Amino acid sequence: MTEQPRILDFQIIERASEKYANLREVIVHIELEEKIESFIVEIYKHFSPLQIKDCVAELVEKLDYVRPHTKNDTSNIMVPYMIFLIIKHFTTLVLPDSFPEQLKAIEHMTNTGTMFQIFMSMDEEEIARVQDEVSFVVDNLNLNVAKTEEYKNLIREKLVDKSLLD
């Protein structure tokens, strides 16, 4: 028997959105003063589409910041930075916003093993949703970069072409 469609109202939309507020606790082990200690980290069970977009937007913004300093070779920072952003946006940990502080946080989290522990505790399907969004944005950026370069070359040709001045 098929269910009869109901009238949609805002309360139903709110109820459907509640799943994005659900947290689960995971235990992270850190060596602190030569003793292994356990800490609780809260991870969102479901990654909200809005948070995914915010995460990817921050990735694009910060990579635009770093690109001039690395001569467009962002490959060695891309993976750890993406993992950092996933942890930043999908846990309750309060992590830095400025890029230099984020790089320092990545170093500390890598050295202590917390980055790996937290990331490995996240749901693979949710991480895949973030990766899909990153791929979509990067593909569109690459397409736009090619078009922008084409326009730049066309403008250069026109500027060099002295016949336009006659």
Describe this structure in words.
The protein is flat, with a radius of gyration of 22 Å. It has helices at 10-17, 49-70, 75-90, 99-112, 114-120, 124-160, and strands at residues 23-32, 35-44. The model has no long low-confidence stretch (mean pLDDT 86). With 166 residues, the protein is α+β, with helices and mostly antiparallel strands. 63% of the residues lie in helices and 12% in strands. The chain has 6 helices and 2 strands; from the N terminus they run αββααααα. The protein has a two-stranded antiparallel sheet.
Number of helices: 6
Spatial order of the strands forming the largest sheet: 1-2
Overall average pLDDT: 86
Described by strand count, sense and barrel closure, the largest sheet is:
2 strands, antiparallel
Order of helices and strands: HEEHHHHH
**Low-pLDDT residue spans:** none
Derived structural class: alpha+beta
Number of strands: 2
Measured distance between first and last alpha carbons:
79 Å
Helix content percent band: 55-70%
Q: What radius of gyration results from the CA coordinates? A: 22 Å
- The portion of residues forming beta strands comes to 5-15%
Can you tell me the overall shape?
A: flat
